[in-house]
Amino acid sequence: MLIATALLGIWAGGCQGVRTQSMLHPEGPSAEKIATLWWVMFGVYGGVFLVTLAVLAVALVSRWRERPILGSRFVLVAGVIIPTVILLAMLVYTIQLSRQMSGGPADLRIEVIGHQWWWEIRYPEYGVVDANEIHIPADTLVALELSSADVVHSLWVPQLAGKRDLIPGHPNTLKLKADRPGQYRGQCAEFCGTQHAMMAFWLVVHEPGEFERWVRQRQRAVGAPAPEPLERGRQVFLEVGCATCHRVEGVSEGLIGPDLTHVGSRLTLGAGVFRNTPGNLAGWLSDPQSMKPGSLMPPTYMPPEDLHALVDYLRSLK
Amino acid sequence: MAGPVEDSYRSRDAPRPWRRWFAFLGGGIAWTLHLLSIYAIGEFGCTSGFDETMWLGVSAVAWLLIGASAILLGVATAAVVIGYRDAGGRWNDSDEPPEDAQEILSQFGWVLSALFMLVILIESVPIFFYLDGC
Amino acid sequence: MSQTNGEPTQVDAVTNDRFEATWQSPPGVRGWIATVNNRPLGKRYMITSLMFFALAGVLSLLLRAQLTVADNDLLGPEIYNEIFTMHGSTMMYLFAVPFVEGLALYLVPLMIGSRDVAFPRLTNFGYWMYLFGGLVMYASFVAGQVPDAGWFAYTPLSGRKYSGLGLDFWLLGLGMVEIAGLSAAVEIVVSTLKLRTIGMALHRMPLFVWSSLIAGVMIIFGFTPLLLATLLLEMDRTLGTHFFNPTYGGSSLLWQHLFWFFGHPEVYIIFLPATGVVSTIVPTFARRPIVAYMLIVAALMIIGFVSFGLWMHHMYTTGLPEVSMLFFAAASFSVALASGVQIFAWIATLWGSRPRYDTPLLFILGFIFIFVLGGLTGVMVATMPFDWQVHDTYFVVAHFHYVLIGGAVFPLFAGLFYWWPKLTGRMPAGRWGKLAFWLVFVGFNVTFFPMHILGFFGMPRRVYTYPAELELSGYNVAATIGAAVLALGFLTAASTLVWSMRRGRQAGNDPWNGGTLEWSVPSPPPGYGFARPPVVRDLYPLWPRTSPAEPPAALQAVAATLDRRPAGWRATLLTDAVNGRPQALQRLPGPTYVPFIAAVGLLVAASAVLAKSYSLAVAAAIFAAGVIGYWLLHEPAIERDEAEDLEARLGLPVVASGPRSTGWWGMLGLLAILATALAALVYSYFYLRLYSQQWPQDGLPLPDLTMGYIAYGILAASGIVLIGSSWSRRRRRGRPLGAMGGAALLGAGFIGTQLANLLTVPFAPTHSAYASVFFTLNGFILLVAAAGVALQVGLIARSLQSPEPPDAPAQQLRFQVVEMFWYFAVVAGLIAFATTYLSPHLL
Question: How many CB atoms lie within 10 A of CB A109?
């Protein structure tokens, strides 16, 4: 009955088609293999579960006997020999699957550095620095080189691949490939402190040509002197202290928080948590602690017109 | 200071105690050494890049793993054989327990060691899929 | 029939009264503090741990309330993190293991027919350490600095850069609880090996006793690495060493290895005694012996070993070599065989038995359902690629609650209902017990089953909230409703039990027709448990014999002689570990404050570390060590006359030495703990080295080999002198005391030389991880050597004060344990020398 409920639940979940963080809705070869593995295990071990319970039920309802009719031999066969056969088969299947998933040489290298509580993304081959968004071309094997600036984090995009930890002092690599363009949500999966829950990101998959365009756009320098209507915002950015922690190419060199050179074109704010709208941006700038309590971003007090100028300036950084 | 009570069970032609205890614990000890060695060979061998050394087309790490598994499987097998012979091929499932529990050590030990042998075998399966390195 | 053998007692009223008085604990608070008897202390362990269980349960309800709907801000991240940390830590460290230990301390002596456990004062000490440790952890709430790094406390998040004082409360409290666990483990192991009653050969040991024995051995090898890891982390936090600090060459993964080397066996340490409970209750309700007894023992042994080979399956996502991970996947698969054996043995026992569906059996059947499911998801989680997806998601949360609540709490509640009449003398009300079961069973599944699906749909563990866009609310609402039902079920169970203590029907000795020895004594049992040691011929001594053979008259005579004897002092019978043949008497201590004072000393030391007054901490620790020394020197007294009388009538010594004595085995247990700690330190050394570019790190000089040779050469020489002492003692030639004095002097020489070596090393322990591990490994040896020298000096002083012939068993035993300790110190020293001095030169 429970199993039936489960099946129904998973099936119903599948129908809604909005599961952006579900391992059972794979969009890449690695996640597809694991989803298949799950359904195989579900069948095999679900069968074992049902058979075991059936045997127990028969034991309880069978006719009264003075002495037990089953002895050590039954226990040996049912408890050791049959399970050994099943488990050996599953072990060989698992090993073969692992071998297939090892990948091969990757076509694109991306560095991911975990911070409390955001993701720094670097494309060393293109000289692009970004945060909380990973852009990759479709149908290309990508190697994410994982490291951490503080504590242990774990990178997880369930629709594309299993997770891999970002451990300070122990570099790691996660290879993944996406079948088709789309946006897939990912999240930190290793407890990393106060805002572990709000350390998410989006993995954006482009058509290869479109990815090239995206790279070129990111490589374009924003330039120091902003156009006139935005100059006030740039001043505010430098005056209220944003520049100490954040880098905007040609404007500031802060390294503590995310790079803001192209913040205007990001999908989200606060590490994948809020949609990047003017309202959210203004709220985030003035009172980040109520949107993401415990975040390392301090509140900034400024007159409304300065806030508007700052928001306009940041949104212009595309 | 052996009292009269103690001596009443001793028989002269019984196997030596070490054979009993080896049958009883030999499999477990072999398993422990096996796990520790395959862990150490894996962690230290793969991390240091030793697996790229090839002998006869097979990775040096795989050779080490095969060697350790063969030796320790041998130890477990020895425990099974010794226990089986001392127990006269019987294994006890408590229907007619012998008076002296020393005999239990053999009768039960060889079955236990055989199960540990099975575990060592299962754990050795992955080696043969990674003959070319980690 | 008050005794298994049914013979009327032949002792006079005077002896009887003296016997009763000897085993009495003092009344009131004094007795409460000073009692060393296993039954009140075992009960107290269980009650205390159930209180922590209730506390952790309340915390979990808060967690569920926070998670019911998306984007909830009922608790907020800080409080949520604190609460889930305390929930997990309390359940794992303060409830599950102590409960199991308490149950074993209570039941094992009753099941093996002994009057108490092997080291009663240690039971008392262990309980206080446990209680104080729990209080230290919860004192963090009062201080407003609650631990918030999870029950696993991964470094560097739990290091001093990212976590506050709360972690110190956590580490120190945990350290004390671990010491309690180790005490109870040594206690249970030695009692099981040495105190089994006449004729209880290995194959007549109840399965609960087998499972406690194996769990006890596992605690020794599993808790020690954790105790060491918590000490190292506390040193990182307070003294500034760098074991786990990647900035200075430490490794955060080293913590994970040490933690999970404990963490996985921990699950089985809880689970094994629970299966022991199942294997006890199933035959009683099936009214027949367990099927495949030997295979169940084999399964327990396999779990005992193989559970130490699974720790890496908690680390599949840390980027280990693929082939290594697969070894651990294979090992995890094979441990499933051991559980399969037990499940089918229980089914075979129940087959056609038409059991009575009382509360204990219902909990057992619920256990089988839940545990089989949880075990199978366990095999899935051990399957590496699948784990990459579900690791640290709610799928894993569901899995381990199925295993821990289903696999351990259900059997433990079955056990509570089953042994409640023994504990309290009254039967729990059947109807309310059954209601409690159904509420718990349904509530449990409604709470935890949906969590599997939450994991699939991307809900990670340890998040205080989740966005609405993930559409996880439905399953979370179900889980919260289930949690409320579950809590109601536990509340019903608790009230049923408490109510029955007053109002329940009188139980009598054996209300369930159980077959094991605990049902042969009155309910609740008197302080001594067994007035006369039972003579055992079967696995189920209280059931009609399967073999008609009567026990030999010699054995019957031993039992009869010990009927309410010795009357003037506490003692129980020592038997051999395999066959249960009588070997000697074991004198036991009566009520005392000494262990309590030692525990208070350590509590003060821990509090002083929290208050950052380190000189007070050192002083308190030295005080506690002194109290423990006093404790070791004060052996329980015996009355000469009665001793000689019994010795003559039994033909057995009243005091034993060597492997016959409990003291010898106790020392072996202590050495096993120290050896495990040493192995963990040596492992840490080479692990740190493996992941360092340069060794010694940071261009530090290689250790000075010459000075090392000198210091450790003196230590080796001391070992050789002690071999001479031992030789002359056994040949009764020469002066063993004099030679031991020489060994002690050389030992002191080693301490002085090596201390000078360490003080002249041109870097501090805080320089880098290399420096930290170098100093710690050598410092560990210095501490062991200092303890060894103290033991030798204590023995010499004692022997000079009250000379005893060296071949008197008590004196022999003292020599033996001191020699064992010092041989260990020498070998450990040489291993440390080879690791820290030789290996960087040679490798």
Answer: 14
Residue of B93, B118, B122 lying closest to A71 (CB–CB): B93
What is the reported pLDDT for B4?
Answer: 42
Contact assessment for residue C85 and residue C147, using Cβ atoms and an 8 Å cutoff: yes
pLDDT at C189 over 50: yes
Rounded Cα–Cα distance for residues C639 and C649 (Å): 16
Residue of B1, B43, B112 lying closest to C324 (CB–CB): B43
At C149 the pLDDT is: 95
Q: Is the pTM here over 0.90, yes or no?
A: yes
| Residues of A with Cβ-Cβ distance to C482 under 8 angstroms | none
Rounded to whole angstroms, the Cα distance separating C562 from B54 reads: 70
pLDDT digits over A2-40, tens only? 555 555 555 554 444 568 899 999 999 999 999 999 999
**Chain B touched by A169 (CB under 8 Å):** no
Q: C778 to chain B nearest CA, in Å?
A: 24
| Res. B129: pLDDT tops 70 | yes
Quote the CA–CA distance of C278 and C88 in Å, as a whole number.
25
Nearest-CA distance A102 → chain B (Å): 11
Residue A201, H or E segment: strand A200-206
**pLDDT tens-digit readout, C260-273:** 999 999 999 999 99
Give the nearest chain B residue to A86 (CA atoms): B122
For B28, name the nearest residue in chain C, comparing CA atoms only: C305
The letter for the amino acid at C199 is G
Mean pLDDT (chain C, rounded): 93
Residue B57: Cβ-neighbour burial (10 angstroms; 0-12, 13-18, 19+)? exposed
Interface predicted TM-score (ipTM):
0.94
Low-confidence winner among C126-135, C431-440, C539-548, C643-652 (lowest mean pLDDT): C539-548
Nearest CB to B102; choose among C294, C578, C686 = C578
Q: Which two tokens stand for residue A187?
A: 């999240």
Rounded alpha-carbon distances, angstroms, from residue C66 to C74, C465, C475, C538, C773: 6, 8, 14, 54, 43
**Chain C residues within 8 A of A201 when measuring between CB atoms:** none
3-state DSSP assignment of residue B49 = coil
Q: How many Å apart are CA C227 and CA C681, to the nearest integer?
A: 12
CA atoms of C587 and A53, how far apart (whole Å):
50
Are B132 and B56 contacting, i.e. CB atoms less than 8 angstroms apart? no
- In this predicted structure, the answer to whether residue B17 has a pLDDT above a threshold of 70 is yes
Bridge partners of C333, per DSSP, are: none
Test C253 with A151 for CB contact under 8 angstroms.
no
What is the rounded CA–CA span in Å between residue A116 and residue A149?
A: 8
Task: Please give the share of chain A, as a percent, with pLDDT higher than 90.
Answer: 77
What is the nearest CA distance from C689 to chain A, expressed in angstroms? 13
Dihedral of the CA atoms C283, C274, C213, C636 (nearest 10)?
-100
Q: What is the pLDDT of residue A4?
A: 54
User: How far is residue C154's CA from residue C392's CA, in Å, rounded to a whole number?
Assistant: 13
Q: Find the distance separating the first CA and the last CA of chain A, reported in whole Å.
A: 53
Instruction: Take residue B67 and report the two structure tokens written for it.
Output: 């060697």
pLDDT at C825: 97
Q: How many CA atoms lie within 13 A of C733 on its CB side?
A: 3
Which tokens sit at A190?
């290793």
d(C-alpha C831, C-alpha C836), whole Å: 9
Question: Chain-centre distance of CA B79, in angstroms?
Answer: 6
Nearest-CA distance A3 → chain C (Å): 9
Higher pLDDT, B102 or A287: A287
Which stretch of A62-66, C430-434, C456-460 has the lowest confidence by average pLDDT? A62-66
Q: Which of residues 282-311 of A touch C (CB under 8 A)?
A: 293-294
d(CA B37, CA B72): 10
Q: What is the pLDDT of residue B93?
A: 60
